[in-house]
Amino acid sequence: MDKERQASLSRIIHYTFNDSAFMIMALTHRSFSAQHNERLEFLGDSVLSFLIAEELYKRFPRIDEGDLSRLRAQLVKESSLSAIATSIGLGDFIRLGEGELKSAGWRRPSILADTFESMIGAIYLDGGIEPTHQFVHRFFETQLNEIDPKLIQKDPKTLLQELLQSKKSDLPIYTVVSIEGEAHSQTFTIECIIKKSDIKTQGIGNSRRIAEQEAAAKAYQLMLEII
User: Which residues are in the RNase III domain (predicted)?
Assistant: First the structure.
C-alpha cells in the first residue's frame, strides 16, 4: 500500500498512524495474506463495545442494564458498522485476495464491518484510548444523538424467549444444520426448535448469530399465531 493511499485514508478517518504497519494490517483480509486483520478485529470489537457502553452509560443514567445492552447492540451490529464503512469508502482500501476481488468482497457487509473494527483495534494499539475514543465518537455521533430510548427494539431471540417464558413453555433450542463456504466467507444454516409447540424453523446468515436471529424471528411469528 503506497504512501499516497495511506495519506488519503488518514485524511478520511482523521487519524495519522505513528506506525503505518498497524493501518496496513487492519486493511488486510485473510484472503490476501496469512498475516491478516482478524486479531485486530477481535480487539477492535471489544474496544468499540466498551466505548459505546461508556457513552450510553453517561447519556442515559436512568436506563437499566438490559436496555443499555440492547441500545449498544443496535449501534454496533454488522449493518451499522458496514454502513459507516461504506460512507467513508473504506472498501476501496481493503486488501483482498483474488477470489474476494472477483466476488466484489469490498462491498460485502461482513468484510466492511470487520475491517472497520480492525481499524479501531489498530488505532488503539497505535495511539491509545484517547484517539480511539475520538475516532469512535466522530463516526457514531449522529447515531448517538438520534437514539430514542423509548424506541428500544428487542432482538428476535429475546422476544421469543420472553414470550415462551410468559407461557411457561420450553425454551428454544438452536442447532447448526450446516456450515458452507470457505473459512473467510461462510454461510450458516441454524434450526430453532420449540418442542412443546412442535415448531421448527431455519435461518440462514453469514454468521451463526445472524442465522439464529432469523430462525428465532420465524419461530416468534409462528408462536404468535398459535397462542
Answer: 6-128
Q: Catalytic residue, from 55, 78, 100, 117: name it.
A: 117
Known catalytic residue at 117:
yes
Domain identity same for 124 and 13 = yes
Domain count, the chain: 2
pTM, two decimal places: 0.71
Does the annotation list 114 as a binding residue? yes
Among 111, 131, 151, the domain boundary falls at 151
- For residue range 79-110, list pLDDT tens digits in order: 899 999 999 999 999 999 999 999 898 999 99
Could you tell me if 124 and 38 lie in one domain? yes
Q: Which three cell numbers stand for residue 106?
A: 469490498
Q: Which of 151, 170, 204 is the last residue of a domain?
A: 151
Q: Is 19 a catalytic residue?
A: no
The DSSP code sequence of 133-190 is: HHHHHHHHHHHHHH--GGG----HHHHHHHHHHHTTPPPPEEEEEEEES-TTS-EEEE
Q: Which domain holds residue 217?
A: 156-226
